[in-house]
């Protein structure tokens, strides 16, 4: 089932001149930004849970992604001392000094909700044990790298695993700055604060978080509680300036992700039901989230997941677990996104976390979602791989196998990657 095929293939053959102009505009605009663009990524970090606790620990895998014979080679594994963290998302700091990794179920086993690694030697990350963890909150999900070299982290819950959660802020030395909102009365319009996706626009000094689900409700014996709210924040005072109920949330399995559309002041969010929504953060509390794109069947069963915007906000990758796609959208006009291409994963592989390299040409997709095993009700194991896709230079389509030999491989298969260690469930990915 590929309902958008006709639109996808129609737009090939974009004039090269346009692409060169776009590249020039990009390098001019970001010449003095904190993040140096356009460098090629050398490493991919994959954050994975051990499937069999008697054979292995939850671990961070380091792969080479430099073009050449070593592409996809496993360079290193950093074992944590833990099992049961449920490794979730990862993000490198803008300085490249730190890697932050979240742990989805850790709080239920009294384990840390965030694990930080030093990337002083990027091929050999070192787990840090000297970072103060959030005090009022737990169940970390997603990070935004802040210009000062630190992070913002969504914490889905309070310290014991229930709403309200917080957004934690770390500075460039990984000092915990605070957990927000400090004034919980700001949550009054929608008390179920379980922030999951997070995007930030440092030019406009705003941030958007979306509430996904009450984690403890996913454990056996509870009724699953999915959330359908988004909140706009001021980064100046870390206060909430707008709370919105998302439209068309029938069949939604929670609002999973939110990202800033470059520095345009706008945000995309997904409802877990194939709907891509746009919210104009510049309108503050008066903003109205609108559905601007719809992927998969009307009933919402697509399970749209993670969004990966490009630096300038002109392209977006969106993964869809149930139907196994990664779609490339032209988001130059953010309220009228157009599909440019789609990468199809094998039947039942699943497609979840999707990340792009620094030069915005290499895409990595992880196919494990969440399998809570005997303790929980969510069982979306996917085929537990990481796959690579490459984009052409103007970023208008995925390249073919003839153009790039690894375009449909290698498949990093976490079931058989480490013989004797059992399989791994790989979720979080981060390029450096
Ligand atoms: C875990 O590994 C041990 C040792 O090989 C094995 O006995 C056990 O059955 C495995 N458990 C599961 C759940 O696969
Ligand atoms: C924690 O340890 C790392 C690595 O040794 C070091 O770079 C960092 O400064 C330490 N952080 C704090 C807050 O002490
Ligand atoms: C977290 O919230 C739950 C539900 O409201 C409450 O029972 C629990 O005491 C809270 N935990 C903490 C540490 O505040
Ligand atoms: C925070 O700052 C925003 C503007 O950025 C302002 O509208 C809002 O009232 C402030 N909130 C608080 C609680 O100070
Ligand atoms: C967002 O709102 C601002 C402020 O009203 C406006 O200037 C801008 O055009 C809007 N953006 C879009 C894409 O509608
Ligand atoms: C992307 O969208 C913009 C604005 O709608 C359009 O001008 C441009 O041609 C599109 N690019 C491609 C590759 O379709
Ligand atoms: C991964 O390895 C397992 C065990 O060898 C195998 O059953 C499975 O088919 C492989 N998956 C892929 C996508 O190659």
Automatic annotation (TrEMBL):
The keyword Signal applies. Keywords: Signal. The keyword Signal applies. It comes from the Eukaryota. Residues 1-33 form the signal peptide. This is Methanethiol oxidase. It comes from Astrephomene gubernaculifera.
């Amino acid at each position: 089932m590929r309902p958008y095929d006709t639109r996808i293939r129609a737009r090939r053959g974009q004039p090269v001149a346009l692409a060169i102009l776009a590249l020039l505009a990009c390098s001019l605009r970001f010449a003095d930004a904190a993040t140096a663009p356009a460098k090629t990524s050398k490493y991919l970090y994959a954050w994975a849970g051990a499937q069999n606790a008697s054979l292995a620990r939850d671990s961070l895998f380091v792969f080479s992604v430099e073009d050449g014979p070593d592409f996809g080679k496993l360079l290193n594994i950093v074992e944590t001392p833990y099992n049961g963290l449920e490794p979730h998302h990862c993000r490198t700091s803008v300085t490249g000094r730190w890697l932050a990794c979240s742990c989805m179920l850790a709080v239920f086993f009294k384990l840390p909700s965030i694990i930080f690694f030093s990337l002083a030697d990027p091929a050999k990350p070192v787990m840090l044990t000297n970072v103060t963890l959030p005090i009022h909150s737990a169940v970390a999900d997603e990070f935004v790298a802040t210009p000062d070299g630190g992070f913002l982290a969504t914490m889905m819950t309070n310290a014991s695993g229930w709403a309200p959660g917080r957004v934690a802020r770390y500075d460039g030395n990984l000092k915990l700055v605070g957990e927000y909102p400090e004034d919980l009365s700001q949550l009054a319009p929608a008390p179920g604060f379980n922030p999951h996706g997070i995007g930030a626009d440092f030019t406009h000094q705003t941030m958007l978080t979306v509430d996904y689900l009450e984690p403890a409700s996913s454990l056996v014996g509870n009724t699953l509680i999915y959330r359908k709210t988004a909140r706009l924040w001021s980064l100046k005072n870390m206060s909430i300036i707008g709370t919105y109920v998302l439209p068309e949330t029938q069949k939604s399995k929670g609002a999973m992700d939110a990202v800033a559309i470059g520095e345009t002041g706008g945000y995309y969010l997904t409802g877990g039901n194939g709907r891509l929504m746009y919210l104009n953060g510049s309108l503050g509390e008066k903003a109205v989230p609108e559905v601007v794109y719809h992927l998969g069947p009307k009933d919402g069963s697509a399970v749209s997941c993670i969004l990966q915007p490009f630096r300038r906000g002109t392209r977006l990758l969106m993964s869809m677990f149930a139907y196994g796609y990664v779609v490339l959208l032209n988001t130059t006009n953010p309220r009228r996104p157009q599909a440019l291409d789609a990468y199809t994963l094998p039947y039942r592989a699943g497609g979840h976390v999707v990340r792009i390299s620094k030069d915005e040409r290499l895409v990595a997709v992880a196919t494990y979602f969440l399998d809570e095993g005997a303790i929980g009700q969510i069982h979306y194991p996917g085929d537990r791989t990481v796959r690579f896709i490459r984009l052409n230079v103007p970023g208008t389509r995925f390249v073919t196998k003839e153009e790039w030999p690894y375009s449909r491989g290698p498949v990093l298969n976490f079931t058989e990657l480490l013989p004797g260690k059992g399989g791994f469930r790989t979720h979080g990915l981060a390029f450096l």
